[in-house]
TrEMBL record:
A cellular-component GO term for this protein: extracellular region
Protein's name in the database: Purple acid phosphatase
Catalytic activity, reaction form: a phosphate monoester + H2O = an alcohol + phosphate
Essential cofactor(s): Zn(2+); Fe cation
Organism expressing this protein natively: Artemisia annua
Protein's UniProt keywords contain Secreted: yes
Keyword 4Fe-4S attached: no
InterPro entries registered for this protein in UniProt: Calcineurin-like_PHP, Fn3_PAP, Metallo-depent_PP-like, MPP_PAP, PAPs_C, PAPs_N, Purple_acid_Pase-like_N
A molecular function (GO) term: acid phosphatase activity
Amino acid sequence: MNDHTIWLVYGSGNLGGYPSDEQPIAKIKIDKAFIDLHHLASVKVDPVLLGLKGEDTAWVNVELKYPEPSNDDWVGVFSPAKFNASDCYFESGKSHEAPCICTAPIKYMFANQSSSNYISTGKATLSFQIINQRADFAFVLFTGGLENPKVVAVSDPISFANPKAPVYPRLAQGKAWDEMTVTWTSGYNIDEAVPFVEWGWKGQTPRLSPAGTLTFTRGSMCGPPARTVGWRDPGFIHTSFLKELWPNTIYNYRIGHMLLNGSTVYSKMYSFKSSPYPGQDSLQRVIIFGDMGKAERDGSNEYACYQPGALITTDQLISDLDNYDIVFHIGDMPYANGYLSQWDQFTAQVEPIASVKPYMVASGNHERSWPDSGGFYNTKDSGGECGVPAETMYYVPADNRAKFWYSTDYGMFHFCIADSEHDWREGSEQYKWIEKCLASVDRNKQPWLIFAAHRVLGYSSNSWYAQEGSFEEPMGREHLQKLWQKYKVDIAFYGHVHNYERTCPVYQSQCVNPERYSYSGTVNGTIHVVVGGGGSHLSDFTTIDTIWSLYKDHDWGFVKLTAFNHSSLLFEYKKSRDGLVYDNFTISRDYRDVLACVHDGCEPTTLAS
């Protein structure tokens, strides 16, 4: 028997209420797990020391032997490897007659996944991809399926050479146009090491910028599973502000920690291009999508049924890095749903993108929604996270990151990113902010005005919205459409619904322009786009004919906006599977067309001379 201590607790909540298409780890009834190690069962992992050359991800082979195999046998990956009683949390009023493991695995795979003869031989070899998550790992063989898990063997622990190493940098625009923020995760608290970013032009003496450090605790979570079996220490999240950048300039950078003994731990070298000056006339390319989720390249966690397109979209964006400048992921990022280990998995998945392009995010229901937590909705979609991991793991240039609305400029674009998890109705704090954001832009310098939110505050032909008879998030456009019209918003983007749909330029549910692919002249209505097909399981359309809908696609994809100059914008919808364009239109106009009077969008005039 391996020398492992597995602490047992009573009562970790019932996870059986999750629907089958929800977080795969929630399918495991870890509260029913018990220990019954079999003397002839074994789990051996190779290699045992990872990241010897500084890598933050590695593949390992897991060799299983069990004399009583069944199709329900599975291997869970636990981290830390040695369960600690201090990690257990007792919910008030909850109890259980039998002992159980108090922490969910970070991933799992069925024993017969890669070996069709496992049942006949009791032997199998599985391949797992492991990322550096600040602790060691143990691989545990269970029988009894996910419903009645029984531990029969536990591996010796494996680990990365430096579990605390700085990993998964993610860029975001700062509050000023000439500022870039770098956020990353490590295992170093400030009493162990000083975090910083080394950066500058290639060939020049680099500069050092300090970083602030944040974290959060189990007590910051609002409910289970985030407070119970889903809890995992998030480590430390560092953010540095690189200021006084020159526009459209390539900078190299690496993240680091200066240890108390005087030595320094560095990441590998990365690079980014700084933002253009607001109003600058240059080629500017923007990617927008929502609801990506995460998936496992090793095939674990049954993600084929959960977020089957996540890696398809991720890989398409990685392959096209040279052809866009900034990314907006408008909510529903990892769908961790209270299983905190999945945030690390997601930051690792998008690291090839987010480490070299500003990766701007919005708040979705799976990040924020939880009853009695100050949000607009009382659903349990966040799994008890109530926004805390998203607000800490990702920087946004908001005045208050707990209120996830913000504006940002990128050259000729001005973006107003709303938070649909907080009240947006007329008279609310956010409504006043939205109007201020839309009104603040100088359309002569920044002609392209973009609104975005996670939930569909505009128009959608999604089946469940159709059943409600609203074709939108209730109370969405009835409160906001007069602002879109008054300030002549070009395009409004939404996620939440997992498909693609584009409307005509529309106001009060009526198309105000008969064109489909080429728009010119006066801005007389806003085009609404649902772009929630980033990777999660797809949503169905209604069979009702919605007169304002011009194009629908039941597939994974994303939008690319290309501003060639102050008068010409190209919109392209691309499928993730091949990167080809399946829907597009152009906008061509002059400044006077933005100023022109339209219905409910006219500036007051006087007869005085």
